[in-house]
């Protein structure tokens, strides 16, 4: 039940709530989510899918390590809920298999 | 591909080496090795850690103002291609030490070696050669060059005989 930081400018992610957004499920064979994995979030009493964009755990050597577990809210079909991502996004997302092009399109800074 | 600078020690970070850390204020920190990364995590100030370039520059142990530093700073602006400039730079890039190394001593090629001791090797060689020449009788067989010497003497004698014969 990791607490997670929503990084886009969606209203659901940015309106203050007395409980932080928590990850309740990882759509992965192992229960461990890495960059590019879809997860289920519990935000403001609702369930919402999200995409992991950076995490505190050190990963493959050429991937940057972030200071917080960053996440972008996503619809079921993969479209991002917000319109802008101001936080730096790892450029290795481009190479991952999956439809991340819309998320990459709204990202403003790459690392 | 670009050779970055380590945040802590200011050394070069080649592609495939080191670690990158992104802070929540979007500042990116690159480290060349885990030594620098661990010191950073311990919240050490690189300006106070004696082996880093930041310390050396801030305490005046190294040249800070020099013309060669301008070349490093200029890297970020894209350069329009000029053929003569390109050719000229290629000649200079063949490894001539920058002038900012003027104030430093020349560091040995690998740790533990010392350029000071290279002269000793040369002297040793010369000594060895003179020793061998002095004591060659220990190594050479006693009859070693004698056959050749006899031959040379014979040749010389024959020549003298011929000359004597001509004179007469």
Automatic annotation (TrEMBL), chain A:
Cited CDD domains: Ribosomal_uL14 (cd00337)
A Pfam family reported for this protein in Swiss-Prot or TrEMBL: Ribosomal_L14
UniProt main location, coarse: mitochondrion
Keyword RNA-binding found: no
Subcellular location, record wording: Mitochondrion
Signal peptide from the UniProt entry: none
Key words of the record: Mitochondrion, Ribonucleoprotein, Ribosomal protein, Transit peptide
Similarity annotation: Belongs to the universal ribosomal protein uL14 family.
PANTHER family: 39S RIBOSOMAL PROTEIN L14, MITOCHONDRIAL, LARGE RIBOSOMAL SUBUNIT PROTEIN UL14M
Stated name of the protein: Large ribosomal subunit protein uL14m
Protein species of origin: Polyodon spathula
Taxonomic path: Eukaryota, Metazoa, Chordata, Craniata, Vertebrata
TrEMBL record, chain B:
Protein family per UniProt: Belongs to the eukaryotic ribosomal protein eL24 family.
Main location: nucleus
Gene designation per UniProt: Rsl24d1_1
Record's signal peptide: none
Intracellular or extracellular location(s): Nucleus
Coiled coil (residue ranges): none
Superkingdom classification of source: Eukaryota
Function: Involved in the biogenesis of the 60S ribosomal subunit. Ensures the docking of GTPBP4/NOG1 to pre-60S particles.
Domain TRASH: 6-44
Region annotation Disordered: where it falls in the sequence: 87-122
Cell membrane among keywords: no
Naturally occurring in which organism (per UniProt): Polyodon spathula (North American paddlefish)
Keyword Nucleus part of the UniProt annotation: yes
Keywords from the UniProt entry: Nucleus, Ribosome biogenesis
Descriptive protein name: Probable ribosome biogenesis protein RLP24
Subunit description: Associated with nucleolar and cytoplasmic pre-60S particles. At the end of biogenesis it dissociates from cytoplasmic pre-60S particles and is likely to be exchanged for its ribosomal homolog, RPL24.
């Amino acid at each position: 039940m990791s607490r997670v930081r929503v990084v886009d400018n969606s209203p659901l992610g940015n309106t203050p709530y007395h409980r932080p957004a928590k990850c309740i499920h990882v759509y992965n064979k192992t229960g461990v989510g890495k960059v590019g994995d879809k997860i289920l979030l519990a935000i403001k009493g609702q369930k919402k899918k999200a995409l992991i964009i950076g995490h505190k755990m050190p990963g493959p050597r050429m991937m940057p390590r972030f200071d917080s577990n960053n996440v972008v809210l996503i619809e079921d079909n993969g479209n991002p809920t917000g319109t802008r991502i101001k936080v730096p996004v790892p450029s290795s997302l481009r190479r991952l298999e999956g439809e991340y092009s819309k998320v990459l399109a709204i990202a403003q800074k790459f690392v | 591909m670009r050779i970055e600078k380590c945040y802590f020690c200011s050394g070069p970070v080649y592609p495939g080496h080191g670690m990158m850390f992104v802070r929540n204020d979007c500042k990116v920190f690159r480290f060349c090795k885990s030594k620098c990364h661990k010191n950073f995590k311990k919240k050490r100030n690189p300006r106070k850690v004696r082996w880093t370039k930041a310390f050396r520059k801030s305490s005046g142990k190294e040249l800070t103002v020099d013309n060669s530093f301008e070349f490093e700073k200029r890297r970020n602006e894209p350069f329009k291609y000029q053929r003569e400039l390109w050719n000229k730079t290629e000649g200079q890039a063949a490894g001539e030490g920058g002038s900012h190394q003027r104030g430093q001593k020349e560091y040995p090629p690998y740790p533990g070696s010392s350029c000071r001791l290279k002269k000793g090797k040369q002297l040793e060689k010369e000594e060895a050669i003179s020793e061998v020449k002095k004591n060659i009788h220990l190594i050479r067989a006693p009859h070693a060059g004698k056959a050749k010497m006899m031959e040379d003497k014979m040749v010389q004698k024959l020549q003298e005989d011929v000359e004597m014969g001509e004179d007469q």
